[in-house]
Amino acid sequence: RAIVEEAARAERVVMAHCHGTPGIKAALDAGVSTIEHGTYLDEETAAQMKEQEAILVPTRFIVERLLAGGRESGMPEYAYRKLVEIGDRHMQAISLAHEVGVTIALGTDIATSGADSAVPWGANGEEVIYLERAGLSPLEIIETATANGPATLGPQAPNSGRLAAGFDADIIAVCANPLDDIALLADPTNIVKVWKGGSLVKGS
User: Fold this and answer.
1) Which CATH number goes with the domain that contains 168?
2) Both 106 and 202 in a single domain?
């Protein structure tokens, strides 16, 4: 709680990497703004997240990538067994959060992503596929990847993620309608144009 209070003095919010239910509960009681992963989220903690307007950043694509790599990735056997065990539970947690009305945001989990990792930068678009499996609609999924992302930063949030007056013109154009097929956002080649702050940085 002291960390959260001190962060608030600097107009910042605190995020907590939590898998277990007790950790999620303790973090919420301390006033954190977002829960990263939230594998063992249950009805009580989901309701608390909703009440406190805390945001869940599940990073499901990390779990899927690690499961796909399996033992061949060099992961220790004990870690692989644990990953398999939590795989189904994590998907249930995302579905529960959605059912309760918890805000969900798409994130990258920077500690396990990178240019030379099993989860390279840019691959997090895959998250849309797993969020759909968890029960989110295409429009809700687009919101996780746009408006909800900046919201995780509280007072420090950039004016991005919305097509609204006063917001930066950060826009993508895709090859088809993602409301008809949200999975197309998982493939970067389907992103035909990108504007950053109103300037075209991809496409012509």
Assistant:
1) 2.30.40.10
2) no
Domain residues for the domain of 13 are 2-157
Q: Which pLDDT tens digits describe the chain residue by residue (204 residues)?
A: 999 999 999 999 999 999 999 999 999 999 999 999 999 999 999 999 999 999 999 999 988 888 888 777 778 888 888 888 899 999 999 999 999 999 999 988 876 667 777 677 778 899 999 999 999 999 999 999 999 999 999 999 999 999 999 999 999 999 999 999 999 999 999 999 999 999 999 998
Place of tokens 């956002």: 185
Task: With H, G, I as helix, E, B as strand and everything else as coil, classify residue 197.
Answer: coil
DSSP β-bridge partners for residue 193: 173
Residues 109 and 12 in one domain: yes
The residue type of 93 is: A
